[in-house]
Amino acid sequence: MPDVTKTAAAVEEAVATPSVDAPAPAAQQEKARSLWGDAWADLRRNPYFIVSSVLISVLLLISAWPTLFTSASPTVGDLVHHFLSKPELGSIGSPDWLGYDQQGRSVYARLIHGTRASIIVGVCVTAIVTVLGGIMGMISGYFGGKIDAVLSRVTDIFFGIPFLLGAMVVLQAFVERTVWVVVFALAFLGWTQITRVMRGAVITVKQADYVHAAKALGAGTTRILFRHILPNAMAPVIVVATIALGGYISAEATLSYLGLGLAAPTVSWGVDISAGVAQIRVAPHVLLWPSIMLSITVLAFIMLGEAVRNALDPKLR
């Protein structure tokens, strides 16, 4: 007969001593990630995000330090030696690389120095409309009632104004149209879309249980808005703002092309495109290169916005 005492002791020891090969709990194997953590993990594997990030990083570097890429002046021309000279594609990085315009100025130098104006306009307008539209949308969506009614009607009025036409009218009020005047004109009419997106997101988020719990615990309105609602309502706003940034750069170039935006001596792709139209038959490179640079920049920000949208939208995973 087996020894009952020894058998019981062996069973007790086996239960008390955990197995070395036993798998760890799932919670210990992988920490739970937030929405932003999941989005970042998806973005790092998205080729569109990688390509657009590289392009935007290069553009930001060019706009911040243009002298790293060319030593030629974008405003000094030589009509005697460089009037509509053709590109010398073998001389990469030299002033002759992309040819010269009708005033004998290096097209390559103007491309490099024109990046700053476009990036400043796009980034500053996006920042202003995101802050202004985000605040108005958050107030409108959270408080509702008469406040929501008034702010919604104001938004509808501005939303009904054609964007480019309204910007033209605003710019006509200024004698000197600098970069900051163009930023003001575009931001004055561009905040409506962000306001609507933020309002809808806040209306959805404020119904969540954690918001009701914060109110029950006595949290103030400011804490609820900026601690609980804003972080959870920012995802769609970031997506819209990122895609709209490329649109603002395109709008600046369009206004400059029409002669209502930036003007000489400011170096801008839109100004060069407008000037290159007259020489499109004899020297198409004057129009071609700034157009390509503008298209690449707008495409980079649209690709970034699409990648962010796919990462932040759970339905697209």
Structure characteristics:
68% helix; mainly alpha; 317 residues
Separate helix tally: 14
The percent range for helix content is 55-70%
Mean pLDDT metric: 85
Q: Pairing-aware structural class of the strands and helices? A: mainly alpha
Return Rg in Å: 28 Å
Q: Cα distance, first to last residue?
A: 63 Å
Shape: elongated
Uncertain stretches: 1-30
Tell me the number of strands: 0
Largest sheet: none
What is the N-to-C succession of helices and strands? Answer: HHHHHHHHHHHHHH
Task: Provide the β-strand percentage band.
Answer: under 5%
Question: Explain this structure to me?
Answer:
This protein has helices at residues 4-16, 26-29, 35-43, 47-64, 79-82, 107-143, 145-159, 163-171, 179-190, 192-205, 209-216, 221-257, 269-276, 285-312. With 317 residues, the chain is an all-alpha fold. The longest helix is centred in the middle third of the chain and has 37 residues, at 107-143. The radius of gyration is 28 Å and the shape is elongated.
What can be said about this structure in brief?
The protein is an all-alpha fold and 317 residues long. It has helices at residues 4-16, 26-29, 35-43, 47-64, 79-82, 107-143, 145-159, 163-171, 179-190, 192-205, 209-216, 221-257, 269-276, 285-312.
How is this fold's topology laid out?
Elements: H1 4-16, H2 26-29, H3 35-43, H4 47-64, H5 79-82, H6 107-143, H7 145-159, H8 163-171, H9 179-190, H10 192-205, H11 209-216, H12 221-257, H13 269-276, H14 285-312
